[in-house]
Design a protein that fits this description.
- The chain is α/β, with parallel strands linked by helices.
- It has one domain: Ribonuclease H-like superfamily/Ribonuclease H (Nucleotidyltransferase, domain 5), CATH 3.30.420.
- The protein is built from seven helices and five strands.
- The protein has a five-stranded mixed beta sheet, sandwiched between helices.
- Helix 2 crosses helix 3 and helix 6 packs across helix 7.
- The radius of gyration is 17 Å and the shape is globular.
- It starts with 12 loop residues before the first strand and ends with a helix.
- The mean pLDDT is about 90.
Amino acid sequence: MLLKHYSGKPLTEAGCDEAGRGCLAGPVFAAAVILPCDFENELLNDSKKLSEKNRNLLRTIIEKEAISWAVASVSPAKIDEINILNASILAMHRAIDMLEKEPEFLLIDGNRFKKYKNIPHATIVKGDGKYMSIAAASILAKTYRDAYMRKLHGKFPYYGWDHNKGYPTLQHKLAIREHGNCIHHRKTFRSVIQTRLEF
């Protein structure tokens, strides 16, 4: 499916998306991407619908051809402090802060967002499967987060983060049962609490 731009108007649009919201461990990552008005790519889609190979291929293309792009994260400790929704929005704000060009309009994947400065925005449910800039942001957020979790795996191999990336798989839960949680776990998440208590 060939995705589209949100508007035909000459606005500088930045797409924003996050990765890792449903994980038990690791930061939540977010990306913001401003694409050229004439950008097209038939492979571009929601990152969850792409193979790892195609995500990494598109990451290189996006980084090369985007007008501006940025990736930011929020730590597990901060997630525990302000909750995952607020942390996801904070990560998006941080990514927008890092853009070299200030956008005139923001496209946000999902249905919740807090206004960023005085820039107008639209929240779009499943926007990463509809609009190119959001799809591009989803790819950057996911590929950067996956790489980060693979790096953490080297220090905490028993959790299997090279495969599950911190998501609540059976392997991950069993590892929490055996080894307990660590500094990278989101300690307020129900699954982390229940896994510690139930096993």
